[in-house]
């Protein structure tokens, strides 16, 4: 499937992902509307989400690899895991951030195993300990936890997310209080307004 042409020329924003000491591990690269604002991609149809992911990847890898040496986190849908849509060559920097709506069916699981063997890294986005996420956990290098879910998950939910050795990333760390809480909970990495807001970098060529 080819992404809709109207979705291929968009600005992209990036937000830093930091270690607790403040060092930057990498960035998440985010789809933006033509005006540069958030677009609410998670509420879109599967086909439009596919197109949004393709547009971000095209911006980052269409003419050159992303500058710098940090990791490159990009949201991807099932179609990229199963090979229906192409991915850039593995460069050991690209982290495929699997959105929470992806089912853990046979094609997805086979795709995750194949991609990791090829050198891609994998992150599970918005960890809620759903059955699908639990099935995919063995393939995850990173597990991202929305700070709004901390109370519901509790210590047991965070412990489970670490069970296969993934690094835990706290998302939506909005202020210093939350940052201190996440450090106390031994998150490996932090992302959110307290660590840096998303900044526009480019428009897709």
Automatic annotation (TrEMBL):
Residues 1-205 form the EAL domain. It comes from the Bacteria. This is EAL domain-containing protein. It comes from Cellulomonas xiejunii. Residues 1-10 have a biased composition (Basic and acidic residues). InterPro entries: EAL_dom, EAL_sf. Pfam families: EAL (PF00563). SMART domains: EAL. Residues 1-20 are annotated as: Disordered.
């Amino acid at each position: 499937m080819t992404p809709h042409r109207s979705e291929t020329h968009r600005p992209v924003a990036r937000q830093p992902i930091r270690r607790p000491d403040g060092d930057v591990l990498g960035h998440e690269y985010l789809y933006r509307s033509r005006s540069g604002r958030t677009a609410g991609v998670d509420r879109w149809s599967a086909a439009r989400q596919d197109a949004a992911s393709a547009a971000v990847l095209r911006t980052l890898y269409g003419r050159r690899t992303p500058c710098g040496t940090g990791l490159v986190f990009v949201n991807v849908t099932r179609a990229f895991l199963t090979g229906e849509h192409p991915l850039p060559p593995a460069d050991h920097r690209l982290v495929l951030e699997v959105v929470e709506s992806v089912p853990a069916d046979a094609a997805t699981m086979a795709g995750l195993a194949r991609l990791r063997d090829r050198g891609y890294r994998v992150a599970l986005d918005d960890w809620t300990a759903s059955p699908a996420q639990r099935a995919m956990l063995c393939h995850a290098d990173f597990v991202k936890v929305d700070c709004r879910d901390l109370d519901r998950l509790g210590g047991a939910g965070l412990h489970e997310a670490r069970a296969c050795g993934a690094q835990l990333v706290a998302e939506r760390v909005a202020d210093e209080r939350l940052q201190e809480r996440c450090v106390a909970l031994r998150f490996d990495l932090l992302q959110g307004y307290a660590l840096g807001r998303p900044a526009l970098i480019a428009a897709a060529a």
